[in-house]
Amino acid sequence: MAGIVFISPYQELTNTVNRVIEKYQITNMEVLEGNLDQGLILAQKAVNDGATIVISRGGTYKLLKSKLHTIVLELKLTIFDIENSIGTIVKSEEDIAIMGYDNMIQAYRMLANLNHDHIHIHQLQYDEKVEPYIKNFVKKGIHSFIGDTIVTEHCRRLGYPCQIIASSDESVKMVIDDAQAVLEGQKKESEFNKRYTALMDSVHDGFIATDEKETVIACNLMAEKILNLDKNHLIGKTIRSVPELKDFLKIYSEEETVIEELALIDGRNMAVSNVPIQVQNVNRGSVLIFQEVATLQKFENKIRKKVLGTGFAAKYLLSDIKHSSRIMRECIIRAKKYSQYDSTILIEGATGVGKELFAQGIHNQSSRRHQPFVAVNCAALPESLIESELFGYEEGAFTGSRKGGRPGMFEMAHNGTIFLDEISELPLQTQGHLLRVLQERQIVRVGGTSIVPIDVRIICASNKNLEKEAAAGRFREDLLYRVNILSLKIPHLDERKEDIPILMNFYLSKYSTKYDKKGLGFSEEVVEYLTDYHYKGNVRELEGLIERGVILADDDKIALADIQKESSVNDSVQLEKTEIKSVEGLFADLPTLKALEEEYIAYLQNKVATTNELSEILGINRSTLYRKLNENKK
């Protein structure tokens, strides 16, 4: 159905309208012919089918205007229409009766030449009977009439002549232009309303607007969802008459703007805002904006993840830990149990036993598995930057700070897990700040004053005995009690020799695939050597030996020479057995300076408690020390 429908009361007008439509190539309009009740039936069907504007004239227009719930435009009679239709008739001396509704009669009265004694005018009301007035005029000796469609039909049925006033092409074009303008306005208003509705329904908060009489005039989808109400239950009612909104009334009644005030609404904590609308100091209503605090927290976490990136993820599961020993099986069972609780966990074990592997597995076994896993090596952080890295900083907190500041590792781990490896290496001052974070579950950025709440599960790890460190004053005793609520000790590889074969095969498969040396195996000598080997570096060292063997192997078996180093700097006994020999004045059999440095650093590592002490004894800064330690591992 076209957007505009023209209900024509008589055939001549139908022809005129069709002529105008064809002349001006109007495509969004349909013409239907029907007078009064018949016209009403046609118009109602057209509106039901999608027409939004109806045009008609005379009594039919009056009827449609009173019955239809849509825009109805009138084809008005103009002075020119009247002059063109009855100019010759009114000039005669014969008495003439002019009958019609107000729109027609007003047009007649605008003609000065109708002010004659032989012209008799009667304005009809919509519910009046026409025929008695015609007969009354006939009794007075008046037998000629001018009228609209209904008057013409009655006159002709009674046998009296009646001149109908025809609408000109120009009048029809004018009302069609008006209808097109209204239709365009409807379209723009509809587009605006759709954008407005889409905007309101897309916002994250509930939204209810009232007018100056406190009547609800708008409600978005989120408000319906939060309140569990249909907007049709709200719109049109006063806000004070809706029981579900009674808890909002205290904030709603505030004369000043209220922003995100916490309120208990229907037993739920909500952040509620109320914005009164003032126009020229006159109240024009108000806007209530609200959201559940729990939903805001989830949304905040989602935003944090998007802003901070998704690079913090745990890759490994507890099932990825390769083992066959009973002691490791017990560790995994305990780790699975710990994963179901949010209490702080302390994982202890020598370097290379797989403490982070367990931490990742615990995270992935927990309810936080879909949230960030942030691993922090406390020993690798420069002392001057430790707190800004952990807790973040505000813009201008120190020279070189990033514009806009930066979130710390704890913020990045919000709703997830933070893994603090080598926690024993934290300075005592930072340990104090960490203790407060563990107790309050909130942080303050370096250089900042606002409190940032955090929800994180904390897993710590250390390759040192923290009880001994606390006794020596190098680790806060009160912090130890907070991090050691749940403890997990990972055994040294030398304590679980039965795990070595399964680990050997796992790493053989891994690196054979990586270096495209499939089908590679171990010689018997290598199996015996690796099974009896003393692993100072635990699983990490075993992995390194096998990677080396895969790379150097020339046959289908990894030989002993492939995994042994030319100069075994890790075996102090071998170094002690080195004999100093002179060959033609050159000390070819002496260990190299590099080997002596590595052995010296390894010796001191077993004598001191922290990397700070080690760097002080060696007379080098921490970054140089870390570089040398990394080189020594290769």
From TrEMBL:
SMART domains attached to this UniProt entry: AAA (SM00382), PAS (SM00091)
Organism: Trichococcus collinsii
Record bears the keyword Nucleotide-binding: yes
Keywords for this protein: ATP-binding, Nucleotide-binding
Designated name of the protein: PAS domain S-box-containing protein
Pfam families: AAA_lid_14, PAS, PrpR_N, Sigma54_activat
InterPro entries: AAA+_ATPase, AAA_lid_NorR, P-loop_NTPase, PAS, PAS-like_dom_sf, PAS_fold, Sig_transdc_resp-reg_PrpR_N, Sigma_54_int
GO biological process: regulation of DNA-templated transcription
Entry annotated with the keyword ATP-binding: yes
Location of the Sigma-54 factor interaction domain: 321-551
GO MF annotation, one: ATP binding
SUPFAM superfamilies the record matches: P-loop containing nucleoside triphosphate hydrolases, PrpR receptor domain-like, PYP-like sensor domain (PAS domain)
